Write a sequence for this structure.
């Protein structure tokens, strides 16, 4: 999957989960705007703390006039967020990166996720039955698929 994402979005810079975790802890640089590019149902189960929800089909303008601000996009594995990052870059946003492995890798590494109530969560929406296999069982929420076709 990572090779597919890289080949389809070669102009999108990637950031590792370790790099993002260090950045979020750093006090010497502004935190990035985190954009969760999944469905509302996925976001509501859990997301990265402080992330803003953006539907995958939303226009770049939904972000507002933040073209110079650092932005990190993520989704389940990085494909939808890669597409949204590309959309942002094409619209003139200059400091955009896609989280490599996205929230599935983040969770599989035991990194924290939050719920909509801003409390720590321990599960991630699996997107669908197939993609959910990429999440370690202990992090996979038992919820209806976000992908209605499967």
């Amino acid at each position: 999957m990572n090779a597919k994402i890289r080949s389809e979005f070669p102009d999108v810079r990637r950031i590792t989960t370790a790099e993002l975790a260090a950045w979020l802890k750093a006090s010497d640089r502004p935190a990035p705007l985190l954009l969760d590019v999944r469905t509302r149902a996925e976001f509501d189960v859990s997301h990265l703390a402080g992330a803003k929800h953006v539907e995958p089909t939303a226009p770049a303008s939904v972000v507002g006039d933040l073209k110079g601000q650092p932005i990190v996009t993520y989704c389940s594995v990085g494909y939808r967020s890669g597409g949204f990052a590309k959309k942002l870059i094409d619209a003139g946003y200059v400091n955009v990166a896609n989280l490599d492995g996205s929230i599935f890798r983040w969770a599989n590494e035991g990194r924290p996720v939050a719920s909509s109530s801003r409390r720590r969560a321990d599960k991630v929406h699996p997107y669908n039955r197939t993609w959910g296999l990429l999440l370690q069982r202990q992090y996979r929420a038992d919820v209806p698929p976000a992908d209605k076709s499967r």
User: Anything to note?
Assistant: Residues 79-90 form the longest helix (12 residues). The radius of gyration is 14 Å. Helices lie at 2-8, 17-25, 40-45, 79-90, 102-108, 129-132. The chain has one domain: 2-138.
